[in-house]
User: Fold these one by one.
Assistant:
Number 1:
Amino acid sequence: MPQILSTSDADFEARFATLLTLKREDATEVDDEAAAIIADVRTRGDAALVELTERFDRVTLTPGTLAFSPDEIENHIAQVSSEDREALSLAAARIRAYHERQVPQDASWTDPHGAVLGWRWGPIEAAGLYVPGGTASYPSSVLMNAIPAQVAGVKRLVVTVPTPDGIVNPLVLLATRLSGVDTVYRVGGAQAIAALAYGTETIAAVDKITGPGNAWVAAAKRRVFGRVGIDMIAGPSEILVIADKDNDPEWIALDLLSQAEHDTDAQSILITTDAGLAAAVGQAVEELLQTLDRRDIAAASWRDNGAIVTVADLGEAAALADQIASEHLELCVADPEALAANIAHAGAMFLGKWTPEAIGDYVGGPNHVLPTARSARFSSGLSVLDFMKRTTMARMTPAALAAIGFAAERLAMSEGLQAHGQSVTARLSRLNGPRR
Ligand SMILES: NC(=O)c1ccc[n+]([C@@H]2O[C@H](COP(=O)([O-])OP(=O)(O)OC[C@H]3O[C@@H](n4cnc5c(N)ncnc54)[C@H](O)[C@@H]3O)[C@@H](O)[C@H]2O)c1
Ligand SMILES: N[C@H](CO)Cc1c[nH]c[nH+]1
Ligand SMILES: [Zn+2]
C-alpha cells in the first residue's frame, strides 16, 4: 500500500516528513557501493570496466569491444522500422527546435569610464552522455542529452549505455546517429561515470558528464563532481500530480504508474482536494498495475515510495508541492496557470489534464533530463547552457584605469595583498608619474 495521508490528520507533519525521505537515491549503502566502483575503475581502468560489466550487465567484453564499431552500429540501425524512425525523427526535430531557442547571447558594452566589459559564451570541449539501460532502454534520453550538446557546439560527444545480456535497442544507436554522437561505449552504472571522469586506457576522460540514471549512477555523479562538471542529480524518476475533482481516475492512475514503472526507486504522489478522487485513483492504480509488463517494478515503487495526499484546498497543495520539489509536476486542475504561478519548485510542469507527463518524456520539446530527490529546489532540467561556459571579458583604457584603479589599490592594501595593489600602481605611475 502507498502512504495515504490527509493534511487534516493529527500526525500529518511527521508522516509527510517521512514521505520526503523515502527514496533510496542518496542512501548511504548505494553511495558506498558507488565509491568502491569508482575507486576500482580509477585503479584498474579497462580491466575493472570489463569485470564490472560482466558482473552487473552479464556481458563479456574486452577493451577492444567496449565501444560499438561503426559496422555494428550500421547493422543495428538497419533493423529499425520506418514507423520507429519516423517517431524518433519527430521527437528529434521538436527537441532541437525547443533547445535552439536556449542559445545564449554574448554581451559587450562600454561603461561611463570607457572600460569595455561583457561576457562571451562558448561550448565545453568534451561531454560524456549517460544513457540509462539497466531495466529499460532510452533512445529518447540519447536525444535529450545529445541534441542540446550539439546545439551548444560541443566538439566531442560520447555516450555510455549499459547493454544487459548484450542486448541494445537499435533505436538507441539510431538516436546517436541523429544527434552527432562520436562514440558509444557499452558500459553502465557507476563504472561508466568513473571512466568518463577519470579516463581509462580506452575511454578518454571528458569535461562534463550529463544524463539520467538509477541510484548508483546518481551517487557516482555526485562523487566525481569537481573532477568533471555534472549537469545535476537526475536519478530515479518522480511524478507529483495535483488534481481537482474533475478528473478521470484512470488517467491520473496511468500518469502515476508511468513514472513508477521506471524503477523500484521511483516515486509517484497524488495530491487532491477530492477524497472521492483519491479513493478512485487508489483503486485504479491497483487494477491497472496488473496489466503492465513492468508491474513488479511499478508495484514495488508504488508500495514503497508512493502516496496519496488529500488537502483542503489548492493553496495547501501548492505549499506541499514546493516541499516535494518533484521532478515532474502535473497540474490537472481547472486553472493550471493560476496554480503554477503559486509553485516555485519543480523540474518540469505539465499544465492541464490534456498534458500527460509522457508527452514531455518523448515529444513535447522540453528536456526530460530533470532534477530529482528535491534537487529541483536548486537546479534545473538539462539545457544548452549545461554544455556552455561563460567567460567574462574586460578591457581597461588608460582613462578607465585612472578613474577606478585607486579603489583596487585601497582594497588590495586592506587585504594585505601587495602585488595586487602594485600591479595597478605601476600602471597609474606610468600615466601620472610616481605619486608621493
Ligand atoms: N531524472 C531523469 O531525468 C531520468 C530520465 C530517464 C530515466 N531516469 C531514471 O533512470 C533510471 C534507469 O535505471 P536503470 O536501472 O534502468 O538503468 P541505469 O543505466 O541507470 O543503471 C543500470 C546500471 O546500474 C548498475 N547497477 C544496478 N544494480 C547495481 C548494484 N546493486 N550495485 C551497483 N551497481 C548497480 C549497473 O552497472 C547497471 O549497468 C531509472 O531510475 C529512471 O527512473 C531518470
Ligand atoms: N520520465 C523519465 C524522466 O524521469 C524520462 C523517460 C524516458 N523514457 C520514458 N521516460
Ligand atoms: Zn518516463
Note: The longest strand covers residues 116-123.
Number 2:
Amino acid sequence: MDKSAYPYHGGRLRWHSSLAKLTFWSFVFIGIIFIFFYRSPSSVSRFHSDPSRRSLRTSSWGGPAWEKKVQTSARIRSRNGFSVLVTGAAGFVGTHVSAALKRRGDGVLGLDNFNDYYDPTLKRARQELLERSGVFIVEGDINDAALLKKLFQVVPFTHVMHLAAQAGVRYAMQNPSSYVHSNVAGFVSLLEVCKEATSQPAIVWASSSSVYGLNTKVPFSEKDKTDQPASLYAATKKAGEEIAHTYNHIYGLSLTGLRFFTVYGPWGRPDMAYFFFTKDILNGKSIPIFEGENHGTVARDFTYIDDIVKGCLGALDTAQKSTGSGGKKKGPAQLRVFNLGNTSPVPVTNLVTILERILKVKAKRNVMKLPRNGDVQFTHANISLAHRELGYKPTTDLQAGLKKFVRWYLNYYSAAGKKADAR
Ligand SMILES: O=C(O)[C@H]1O[C@H](OP(=O)(O)OP(=O)(O)OC[C@H]2O[C@@H](n3ccc(=O)[nH]c3=O)[C@H](O)[C@@H]2O)[C@H](O)[C@@H](O)[C@@H]1O
C-alpha cells in the first residue's frame, strides 16, 4: 500500500502513538504516587481505621523527630523503673494510670485513637494534662500492626498496660462491631506484636466485672464460672480472657487481667450513669433510674479511680517477666485475673441521693424497669485475691469519691467554658 497516498492516515497514527505514550506515563505516574502513599507509614492507620468509630484527625507517625518524642516519653527516670506502653492513654483510667507511672519515674508512652464514642475534647484535655507531665500520646489504633511494630522497634517496652477498649455495656446494642474491632481484634493485634518482641513485655490489661454476667452468687470471686455474659461487651471481655490464656500458653507471655468494677471519678467517662446523672440533675432534666423485677434493687460496686490506679500499679509491680522471645515460648509464664472492686455495692437510687446532696439540687427521678440492654442487676467484688497478691485495698467510699468528682466536674465545665456534651 502506498502510504503517501494517505497522508492524513499517517498523521493519525502518530497522534495515536503519542496519546498511547501519554496514557502509559500517566499510569506510571499515578502508580508511583499510589505506591508512595500506600507504603508511607503515616498512611497506614488511615487504611486500617474503623469506620464505625471515627477518629477526628488523620493520624501521622514516623520520622526522626517523632521517634525522639517517643523515646523521651518512654525513658525510665528511676532505679528499677519500667518502660510502659499505655494503650487508651487518653481514656479515663489510662490518663490516671499514665500520670501515676510518670510521677514515680517510669517511662510512659501513650497510644490512643481518640475516637468519638464520647466527646473527644475531653480526651484532648486529658492529653494536654499528660503532655504537661511529659507523657506523649501517639495517635493510632491498636489494630495498626505496622504502628505497633514500629513502637516496639523504637522502645523495648518492659510492660504494656492495655486499657484501650470499646467500653460501655449498653452501647454494644447500637454498635456491636466496634466491640469486636477493639476488644477482640485489637487485643489480638497487640498480643501478636508483643509475642514477636525479642524481649517480650509483661502485659496487664482491663477486663471487666461484666464477665460475671447473670451469676447470682455474691460476692463475685475469680474462682466463679463466667459463662453467662449479659451483653456483647461482657462477651468480648470474656473472649479477651480466653485469648490471654492462649497467648500465655503458646508464646509464654505474662498476662494479668483486671476485672474493673464500675470505675468513677474526676476526668471520668461521660457515658457513665454517675456522670450524665450529674449533668442532667444540674440541667433540671429527668434521669432514668433502672430497677429490677418487683421493684428489685439495681446496685453497683462503684470503685474510685485512685483505688483502681493503685490496683493497676500493684499488678504491674508484681507481674513476672514473659518467658518467650521472637514468637517462641521458653517456659511457663504467669497468667492472672483479679477483681478490682470496692466490696460495698450501692443501689443506684442511693447514688442519686448522694448526688442530690452534693449538688444541692433535687433530681427528677424517672424510675423504670431495667430494660433488656445488657445491664445486670448488681455487682459485688470479692477482692481478697487482689489484696493478698497486689496489696490492693480500696479506701474511698462513694460519698467521698463523688464529692471529688463533682468538684472536678464543676471546675472543668465552668472554668474552661466547656459544654458537658455527655452523650
Ligand atoms: O464494671 C464494669 O465492668 C463496667 O462498669 C461500667 O458499666 P456499668 O456498671 O453499667 O456503669 P454505668 O453505665 O455507669 O451504670 C451504672 C448503673 O446505673 C444504672 N443506670 C444506667 C443508665 C441509666 O440511664 N439508668 C440507670 O439506672 C445501670 O443499670 C447501672 O446499674 C462501665 O460503663 C463499663 O465500661 C465497665 O466495664
Note: Confidence is low (pLDDT under 50) at residues 1-13, 34-51.
